[in-house]
Write a structure and sequence with these properties.
This protein is mainly α and 232 residues long. The chain is 75% helix and 0% strand. The chain contains nine helices and no strands.
């Protein structure tokens, strides 16, 4: 008997376990009268690390973005435990989205541009239907050119996140790594990074999707709502 696929956890659960709970631990349990800076940091890291390992185990596949998340968490813990200068935390915060942005831009010169994995993907858009209309109208080359522009726009989204991550980390985390204040500031950084960085970056990504949808409509006559797989 085949085991039915497990339903993915809700985004609210993901944010609760990976962001909110660790942040509360860092801000409330880092004092010497509680767990202390090191133990609080280890406990906070255990939640997103455990959740990421669980997700990888249940999905039975290696998700590159999940791996990047685990690397990011590991580096954060290493900076705290090794008591490195807070500047390196800011570098780490900028490095992860910056590397993703470089990978997105660099993929335009490969056989597998990441724009097709992130936005122009069969799970999101009825690619076969779009390609059939492009072939019928002889607009494939123009659409490829617009996809390349969309790739640069997507890369710029990650570069925006990298810049904002660095600025926010330098502004909030100013105490020595390994101290109680450092852990509290790290908790505030984690909480503020979502409304101040993740939400604007998501809106920018939606604008890229809108740009692709507009290109599809102009070159094929199809509306984006007709091409989205959820509309099938």
């Amino acid at each position: 008997m085949t085991t039915p696929p497990r339903k993915p956890a809700s985004p609210l659960t993901e944010v609760l376990i990976a962001v909110i709970v660790p942040s509360i631990i860092l801000m409330q349990l880092s004092g010497p009268e509680d767990l202390g800076p090191v133990n609080a940091l280890l406990l906070a890291l255990a939640f997103p690390l455990g959740w990421g390992a669980r997700d990888l185990w249940l999905q039975r596949r290696l998700n590159p973005f999940a791996v990047l998340g685990l690397v990011s968490i590991g580096l954060t813990g290493g900076i705290g435990l090794l008591e490195l200068d807070a500047f390196w935390l800011a570098v780490k915060e900028a490095a992860i989205p910056g590397l993703i942005g470089l990978a997105v831009i660099g993929s335009t010169w490969t056989r597998y541009p990441l724009i097709r994995t992130v936005l122009y993907h069969p799970r999101l858009i009825d690619v076969d239907r779009v390609q059939a209309q492009l072939l019928l109208r002889g607009a494939q080359s123009e659409f490829e050119a617009r996809l390349q522009r969309a790739t640069w726009m997507l890369g710029a989204t990650f570069f925006f996140s990298a810049t904002m991550n660095f600025i926010l980390a330098r502004w909030i985390v100013v105490s020595p790594a390994g101290s109680t204040a450092f852990n509290e500031e790290l908790g505030r950084l984690t909480l503020l990074s979502y409304p101040m960085i993740a939400i604007p970056a998501t809106l920018m990504m939606l604008l890229v999707l809108y740009y692709i949808g507009r290109a599809i409509h102009q070159l094929t006559g199809l509306k984006l709502s007709e091409c989205l797989q959820t509309a099938q």
